[in-house]
Amino acid sequence: MVHSMTGYAVASADTPRGALTLELRSVNSRFLDLQFRVAEELRAAEPLLRERIAARIARGKVDCRLTLGNAVAQARQGLNLQAIQELRALATEAERAFPGIAPLRTTDVLRWPGVLAEPAADEERTRGALDEVCRKALDELCAARGREGAKLAAILLSRVAEMRKLLAEVAPLVPEAVAAYRERIAERLREVLGSGDEERTRAEVALFAAKSDVDEEITRLATHLDEVERVLAKGGAAGKRLDFLAQELNREANTLASKAAGLKIADCALELKLLIEQIREQVQNIE
Q: What is the pTM of this model?
């Protein structure tokens, strides 16, 4: 299964410190780009989140927001005496630098990072909850990206089918178009060169006919379409490979258009280019 780079997921779990919520948003990006907005008291969890996300997602810009709601039983938390001593020392220095400064209030002290010490049992439960919400959010995000990827794959396969139909229609036209083109060139050369240089006329006609033969381009287009189907069937991180194939398809379609010996072949090349452009647009969304 191929995956889209677009998705959204959210997961929550209750902890002694409050409701822990992880929100993940994913959009297109050339590489894996992780952006974190983590509550200050959970800053130590960022490396774990980074590792877990990188293990499940290969490409995309992922915005990760981790919040912690206020606990109801805040009073059960203990005081970190070392943090209080450090805060007292800072307050003393501030009073020396700014005489007459207002003293710290109790609420100011309790809000200082690290002053409220979490009980060991609560720390363990918080880490367990973090593992749970990370797993749930990533499962939901990957499932959403997978559903979107399945829709994108269906669109690509439909475009591939349309391109195969066009190639099947144009292939029988090539010999007739080349023969007609050869006759037109021969007639023009006879008018320019006269009837006395038949050998040169045949050589010029052969050269122009070779330049107008598009069998090779049609074969390569079919081969690239086979590869697109193979990559989609294999799944995984296929976006970059599909983008390369779209570029190759476009190059062959351009050559087909430039060498077209008839109006129908030229129209077919134009339709192919439109379908390839649609493929390229959809491929930009695939991981």
A: 0.70
